[in-house]
Amino acid sequence: MQETPKDGLRRGDLGWFDAGRRARIGMPEAIYAAGKSDAALVEMIDFALEGSGPVLVTRFDPSRWELVASRAPWLAFPGIEENSDYVTLVARPLDQTTTKYVAILAAGSSDRVMALEARAVLTALGVHSHLILDCGVSAIERTMVALDEAHEAEIFIVLAGFEGALATVVASMVSKPVIGVPTSVGYGVARGGETAMASMLTSCAQGLMVMGIDNGFGAACAALRILSVR
């Protein structure tokens, strides 16, 4: 790859890589694996590994593992062997330098892969997270238990499909920032997460922030921005 004069932006044979992003905004460029050819993916990963900071690869198809396995000691969220549609890969995570943590509450265990995408990003940047699965409002007693367990969190990331109600409940119960992630989990008029997203966007809970459908990555990035000013 060749570096352009401005801000560490580099251009390879198959794409561009923003090597200066972490210096500008505190977070490295994430390599979005879905849709990239094998050659383009390897080129981006090899260039990212030339740097000294954390490396993030999102929406990685585990069937392509042999392409990258030998290139770095990877953390995989979830593990490669767990037969998920996609995983998030992390190399060279930063050491944790704060006791502050982000709570990740997932309404159902079917939201786990998206929740782990958020956890991967936080781990890469040295931020501890506490993940609680299956705490949705269909049995609201478990929601209350989860909120009690995570009461010291600085930020809450809340993932929910179906009608997306968990985000409103959490945002009505805590004073810390709440980031809702509608997920594509649910039957019929759940419409691949559109109903959950509309529900969160029309929430009566004041100040609830909402990401796009299944965007655990974006939720973690938002949490990191909030933490940087707290």
What would you say this structure looks like, in words?
- InterPro entries: P2CMN_synthase_LarB, PurE_dom.
- This protein is 32% helix and 21% strand.
- It is α/β, with parallel strands linked by helices and 230 residues long.
- It folds into two domains: 2-91, no CATH class; 101-227, 3-Layer(aba) Sandwich (Rossmann fold), CATH 3.40.50.
- The strands form three sheets. A five-stranded parallel β-sheet has the order 9-8-10-11-12, sandwiched between helices. A four-stranded mixed β-sheet has the order 4-5-7-6, sandwiched between helices. Strands 1-2-3 form a three-stranded antiparallel β-sheet, with helices on one face.
- Mean pLDDT is 92; it is low at 1-5.
Large-scale geometry: globular
How many independent structural domains? 2
CATH architecture descriptor text of the largest domain: 3-Layer(aba) Sandwich
- For the report, how would you describe the main beta sheet? 5 strands, parallel
Q: Unreliable segments (pLDDT under 50, ≥5 consecutive)?
A: 1-5
Q: What's the CATH topology name of the largest domain?
A: Rossmann fold
Assembly category: single chain
Rounded radius of gyration (Å): 18 Å
In percent, how much strand structure appears in the residues? 15-25%
Binned, the helix content reads 25-40%
Provide tags for this entry.
single chain; 230 residues; alpha/beta; four-stranded mixed sheet; 32% helix; PurE_dom
Layout of secondary structure:
Blueprint: E1 2-3, E2 9-11, E3 16-18, H1 21-25, E4 30-32, H2 38-50, E5 55-60, H3 65-68, E6 75-77, E7 87-91, E8 101-106, H4 112-124, E9 128-132, H5 140-149, E10 155-160, H6 165-173, E11 178-182, H7 194-201, E12 209-210, H8 216-227
Parallel strand pairs: 4-5, 8-9, 8-10, 10-11, 11-12
Antiparallel strand pairs: 1-2, 2-3, 5-7, 6-7
